[in-house]
């Protein structure tokens, strides 16, 4: 995700919110139209959810142009970094399934 390099601003306060029934750190990013580099991020707000114990990226929520909740699962290791294998996107308006993305591992 390119949230920080996009010109979005990370809010100072980290909250603890439920994400899929689990307490997670919630980091919020907001867009200032004078700073945002790409139209893709203008007028949008993003919340990233991180597991409190393992620090795995559990998912994120976008509000604005795209109203999605994305959930990650099935992690693999690259050095000390855990990369999710699956991302499932839901529409926040009616909680309908939008898309499923599978990451292919290099051989």
Structure description:
This protein is mostly beta strands. The chain has one domain. 0% of the residues lie in helices and 54% in strands. The chain has strands at 9-10, 15-19, 22-30, 45-51, 57-63, 68-78, 81-91, 97-102. Strands 1, 2, 3, 4, 5, 6, 7 and 8 form an eight-stranded antiparallel β-sheet that branches. Strand 6 and strand 7 form a beta hairpin. The mean pLDDT is 86.
Helical run tally: 0
Order of helices and strands: EEEEEEEE
Shape: globular
* Total tally of structural domains: 1
Low-confidence stretches: none
Helix content range of the residues, please? under 10%
Structural class: mainly beta
Q: What is the mean predicted local confidence, pLDDT?
A: 86
List keywords for this structure.
107 residues, mainly beta, eight-stranded antiparallel beta sheet, 8 strands, globular
